[in-house]
Every structure is written in structure tokens, then in C-alpha cells.
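Exercise 7b. C-alpha cells:
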């Protein structure tokens, strides 16, 4: 997205990254935008920054209203293992979908987010039913902010309405909120730190650690951990500095009956919703866990031998020592070894060390 920004613009962006409050960040973003040249290579960047400025203005105004005792709380604190937001236009039927998923009755067009939940094999999914998109401009922007903060989305479209228009409206709202439903080929995260220089975890295409160091120094960053997943380039690293679009796995719900031939523009799974009884929650749960690269790890009590029914849900690639830390700091500090029961093994349990990588469905007992 960034295209050969001048040194002055990079210096202004450093101030954006150093801002400590919404007010400071707003001022810094406005100054940065004034230094970004206007040409085709910077169109997306200028649009992204303009939207950030608008969002910060709304955030500052909402904070003022809350201090004055006005306005309603719109943000929904994450609970459970996966937070899912329902998105749809007025009259799409998402409140019926929400009720079938959670058992919670919600107004057809709620004025504020309504939370609920469902569980699948011990995994807790929090589902949030917000107001419809495009009903009110300010509410719609806050709905997209909820979507950006969530783990996954369910997009509801009514087949009896203008399906193409619904697709277009939802896609535009997501794009404006810097949210993408297409999984990127590569993801880069940059964690700034106080010392240690620049550390590159993973590999870049046609770029070296020296290239990354040079790029980050041009933005005033001398110490950071750059983590690369998938296929990423030096441009991907620079985009990460500005906030790359947030990828959200999604399932598409088609309500209203019929419309099985309708194709969605995002190439995501389609669920034809007719009745609560026909809704396959297991399919949705498995899809989200796979798309989010999450696994379920079950813990075993060394005294009783009982296995917890509710798993610990973690990212694929999690090591035994990280599970010990999640259970209790004492287990992490005094870790000796662990026993793991797994269908991968010919014989279980197997004694493993701290760096053993767990897989979905493994049972682990920590010995401290």
C-alpha cells in the first residue's frame, strides 16, 4: 500500500506510532496525511488514513458523551473462545439466525448489540447480534468496528431481496472498515521492543533481514520482532506498519428459502438457513476453528486422572510449556515434563519435554 513515501511523511508516521491517546493520534494522523503526496500509488493509503481519522473522531466524541452521561454502550467484551459477529442489512433475518444459534430471543432490528452463545464439544462461541448495516451511518460504522474486533463473521443475506445489492453494500462497508474476507497469502506482525535490534521470525520473498532493518529504520524503529506467516514480501512488512486489512473468516447464511444457485463474491461457505432444526452448528464450529488455525487441548488432573471436559483453545503450534503457563504460573516455573495422550501415538501416554508441539484433541498432564 505505501508507495515511496518521502522522508517527511515517514517522520510524521513515527509520531502516529508514538501517540499515547486518541487525541494525540488524531492530530498526528492529520499531520501525516498532509505530507502524503497525492498520486495513484498512495490512493489506498490516503483513503485508509482518512477512515482512521473519521473513526478516531467518533471515538473521541463517544467518550465525551459517555462522560456527560449520554449515549449507550456499544462495545461488547469478548467472552469464551471465539467471538462471532452477525452482519446483514435490514430485513435479512439475522435475528432469527441469532436465536437459533444461541436460544436468545432478540428484536428483529436491535438498536444495540445483543450477546449470546453456543457450545460445541466444550468450545464456547460468543455470538453478537448488532443493529443492521446501513440503517444509521454512525451505528453502521460502530457495527463494522465490532466486526474488526471479532474473531469471525456470519454474513446474512435474504434471497427474496436484491441479493447483488446486499452483497455490494456489505462488501463496501467491510472495505471502508479495513476488513477483508479473503485470506491473505502472507501475514506480518511487528512487535516493537526496547532493545535487541530487529529479529525476523519466518522468511520473506525476495528480501533479507538487512532489507527489513533498513525499512524499519526509515520509520525510526530500531528494535522489533517481525513475525512472518505464509508468503510475504518487504511491501507486506511496510503495510503492517500502517495496519493491514484485518482478515476475518466468515460463513454466508442465505435466508428466505431458495436461492441455492446464488454465488457469493468471497468464495466462503454457504449455509441455506430454513429452520433451527436443520442448522448444523457443528459444521460452523469446525470451519471457524480450522480457518482461525485453532486447536483444542484437554488437560488431565494428575491426582484424580480426570480429563477436563472443556478444552483449552489455542493456536496451532502451541507448545506444552505454553499450556503449563496458561494453567498456572507455578506449573510454568517448576515444569519438569509432561505426559501426552494422543491418537498420533502407537502407545499413550508419551513423556515429552517443554517444547513438544501439541495437536488438536491431545490430552496433556503437566508434571512439576
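Sequence design result:
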Amino acid at each position: 500500500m505505501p508507495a515511496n513515501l518521502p522522508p517527511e511523511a515517514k517522520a510524521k508516521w513515527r509520531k502516529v506510532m508514538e501517540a499515547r491517546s486518541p487525541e494525540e493520534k488524531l492530530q498526528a494522523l492529520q499531520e501525516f496525511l498532509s505530507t502524503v503526496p497525492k498520486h495513484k500509488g498512495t490512493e489506498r493509503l490516503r483513503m485508509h488514513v482518512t477512515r482512521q481519522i473519521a473513526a478516531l473522531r467518533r471515538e473521541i466524541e463517544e467518550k465525551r458523551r459517555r462522560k456527560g452521561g449520554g449515549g449507550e454502550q456499544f462495545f461488547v467484551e469478548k467472552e469464551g473462545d471465539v467471538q462471532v459477529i452477525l452482519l446483514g442489512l435490514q430485513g435479512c433475518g439475522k435475528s432469527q439466525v441469532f436465536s437459533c444459534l444461541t436460544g436468545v430471543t432478540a428484536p428483529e432490528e436491535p438498536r444495540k448489540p445483543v450477546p449470546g452463545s453456543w457450545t460445541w464439544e466444550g468450545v464456547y462461541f460468543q455470538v453478537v447480534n448488532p443493529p443492521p448495516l446501513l440503517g444509521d451511518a454512525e451505528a453502521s460504522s460502530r457495527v463494522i468496528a465490532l466486526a474488526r474486533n471479532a474473531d469471525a463473521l456470519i454474513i446474512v443475506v435474504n434471497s427474496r431481496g436484491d441479493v447483488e445489492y446486499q452483497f455490494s453494500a456489505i462488501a463496501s462497508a467491510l472495505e471502508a472498515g479495513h476488513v477483508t474476507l479473503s485470506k491473505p497469502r502472507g501475514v506480518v506482525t511487528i512487535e516493537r521492543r526496547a532493545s535487541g535490534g530487529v529479529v525476523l521470525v519466518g522468511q520473506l520473498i525476495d528480501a533479507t533481514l538487512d532489507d527489513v532493518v533498513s525499512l524499519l529504520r526509515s520509520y525510526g524503529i530500531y528494535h522489533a520482532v517481525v513475525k512472518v506467516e505464509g508468503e510475504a514480501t518487504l511491501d507486506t512488512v511496510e503495510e503492517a506498519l500502517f495496519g493491514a486489512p484485518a482478515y476475518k473468516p466468515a460463513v454466508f447464511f442465505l435466508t428466505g428459502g431458495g436461492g441455492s444457485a446464488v454465488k457469493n463474491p468471497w468464495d466462503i461457505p454457504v449455509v441455506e438457513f430454513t429452520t433451527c432444526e436443520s442448522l448444523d452448528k457443528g459444521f460452523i464450529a469446525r470451519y471457524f476453528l480450522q480457518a482461525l488455525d485453532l486447536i483444542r487441548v484437554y488437560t488431565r488432573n494428575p491426582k484424580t486422572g480426570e480429563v477436563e471436559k472443556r478444552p483449552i483453545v489455542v493456536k496451532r503450534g502451541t507448545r506444552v510449556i505454553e499450556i503449563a503457563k496458561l494453567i498456572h504460573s507455578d506449573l510454568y516455573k517448576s515444569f519438569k515434563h509432561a505426559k501426552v495422550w494422543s491418537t498420533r501415538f502407537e502407545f499413550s501416554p508419551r513423556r515429552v519435554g517443554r517444547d513438544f508441539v501439541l495437536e488438536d484433541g491431545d490430552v496433556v498432564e503437566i508434571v512439576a
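Instructor comment: The longest strand covers residues 114-120. The chain has eleven helices and 16 strands.
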